[in-house]
Specification:
homodimer; alpha/beta; TIM Barrel; eight-stranded parallel beta barrel; 13 helices; 12 strands; 47% helix; globular
Amino acid sequence: MIDLLIEKIQKTGAPIVVGLDPMLKFIPEQILAAAYGQYGETLKGAAEAVWRYNQGIVDAICDLVPAVKPQIAMYEQFGVEGLIAFQKTVNYCREKGLVVIGDIKRGDIGSTSEAYAAAHLGKVKVGSRQYAAFDEDFATVNPYMGSDSVTPFLNVCRTENKGIFVLVKTSNPSSGEFQDRLMDGRPLYELVGEKVAEWGSACMGSSYSQVGAVVGATYPEQGKVLRKLMPKAYILVPGYGAQGGRGADLVHFFNEDGLGAIVNSSRGIIAAWQQEKYAVFGAAHYAEASRQAVLDMREDIAGALAKR
Amino acid sequence: MIDLLIEKIQKTGAPIVVGLDPMLKFIPEQILAAAYGQYGETLKGAAEAVWRYNQGIVDAICDLVPAVKPQIAMYEQFGVEGLIAFQKTVNYCREKGLVVIGDIKRGDIGSTSEAYAAAHLGKVKVGSRQYAAFDEDFATVNPYMGSDSVTPFLNVCRTENKGIFVLVKTSNPSSGEFQDRLMDGRPLYELVGEKVAEWGSACMGSSYSQVGAVVGATYPEQGKVLRKLMPKAYILVPGYGAQGGRGADLVHFFNEDGLGAIVNSSRGIIAAWQQEKYAVFGAAHYAEASRQAVLDMREDIAGALAKR
């Protein structure tokens, strides 16, 4: 799956993943009104609005980017109805040729991680049959519980040609609270990064591993160190845009081959129409605003990479 | 909510939570056959089997224990249908007067954790209305991303009178890989434990905090240290039974007042009918086997506590 992701990144020239993290406040009034008109101000109504909104964005950007990253929490908050919208979104994106990174940040003891890995990347057995429940292409994984919580995901990566991104150094302000603590003079995120390299060596694609890492754009210095520590790991970089990361911060996440990183932007793209910069599009053309925001982001990153 | 949990623990004399982590291989043939007969060997059929199986167990144990802990991964693997079974299980257990601890191990950047907290403990706004999606009483939370990933859960604990259990030292074999690493001579789990105490001090019930901790029964020595470090935190102790923890290992997790810990057993109870010890019940009476396993576990723990 990492090979397919790289192929699509090269084809689009956009090392960009669009975070499909829909909050109701991002959704234009005409979509909310239509969904509530049909189902009322209910969980089903909210889920319907989310789904229609996503569809518009996906249609507008699917030729420009290699991948999307739906954040499952934004769907889970609407319960079962929300998860139906999540599943429809995953399926729709795959139909449109996008690689889907499920931002699920799961991780548990072995037998439980097995169930999560089956739920999101693999298949579950029911009697004599097998089913893929959510069937994303990649998933994000939380490493706090150690190797045996990650191993079931690695197994599924191998058998199903899927991939994972392990949280190493996250983009949020308090990520350093535990991740930066020094152990024998080295921060925890480096130890996790080393493990990512180790886990990844057993799940190689043709040039990069199926096992990538999450390192926030908001921490470029740490990104520089981690880039060297995990040379074969693709880095999924959140925190661009709304969280404060800029194109110039991103260069250290890439390898010399111009590959090795894919940058996420969520609200910076999906809620672009609410920014002054894209206000001219208006609510009716929110998806075109998203498209323009992708084009601008692609240019920002390409410019920063050209300058290094 | 912690006050209610303690009240129920005292009333039942059982500091026990039953882990509702249904795997299809635990479910008696007659239940599988009936569910598959109705819906086929489908995700819906599997979810129906899980739900019927849970119902039987809950009916058999609900007067004996204060709480249950459904592990959401075991439902999530069956996709949306599985999550419908999860929701039915949560609702049914609450109707039966059980405290429900959602074992979800979520945690993300602030705005995303807000969505998870709303999904599982709080309410989500849809237009002018509010809905509780899954509506558990407690949830487990992964702390790897630091305070700002936990804060949204704390806020919901305060506004909705709910609680959380933060992963501190987990029960699995490789939990030490990161959690035991020394920082300034102290293991990471102690630093997380200190944070739990700090977070908890702002969310107090009448004697214990709404913010508890997960510490595995398989690590009694670490439990002893953590017990002192977080005197007001209830400790949720997984790893009893199938994972190797015994009653004698548990005493250190309790405070002098006989409170402060609640011990989880999952397959040791829900799949008791498959053990030689309870084979006499047979598949038809699987739920009675679970009831007997709870009684035996209660005795094991009470005996160990009496001896200390």
